[in-house]
Specification:
Its EC number is 2.3.1.275. Pfam families: G3P_acyltransf. Probably interacts with PlsX. Keywords: Acyltransferase, Cell membrane, Lipid biosynthesis, Lipid metabolism, Membrane, Phospholipid biosynthesis, Phospholipid metabolism, Transferase, Transmembrane, Transmembrane helix. By secondary structure, the protein is mostly helical. Helices cover 70% and strands 0% of the residues. The chain has one domain.
Amino acid sequence: MPIIDSTMTQLILWAALGYLMGSIPFGMVTAKVMGLGNLRNIGSGNIGATNVLRTGNKTAAALTLIFDAAKGGVAVLVARALAGEDAAQIAALAALLGHCFPVWLGFKGGKGVATFLGIWLALDWRVGVACCLTWLVAAAVWRISSLAALAAAATSTIWTLLLTGSQTLLLAGVLTLLVYWRHSANIARIKSGTEPKIGQS
């Protein structure tokens, strides 16, 4: 845990701002702007980059990935610059919650992987890069996006301990649990062998 220097009012403010940044549904916006239809009616119905890729438009999927990662990173960097490390961590958690449970979509959002990675790249680039590399290696080995995401999330606490110590360990644990919670259906399909592979409809 970081040293708490901000007031409760300030932390609540940064939580609110982080949530609002995280709740922007870039996948749905990108799909609409590029004429790909309503993501809720495509593939899994998820608003993230993996489901955007199921439209067959790789550019739209890449833009969704970048924007979803960026909103988490921006929330962290702005909070850190204007308030401090405690506010940055609060904003990080709130941004992931905003992506997963956006008020604009009836609290039915994405699974948070890109936002999770963007958050870590902003909190500590070394941990962020390690998580991204973990995702890439796991995806190359198993060819299952959700399994790669779970591997990246699970190892984030290890990378945090190895690279930064304990200052962000609690946050790492909470973010990991949130990612796993959002992937509960995927975990069930992985266990049953029915989880789609990357590129598969």
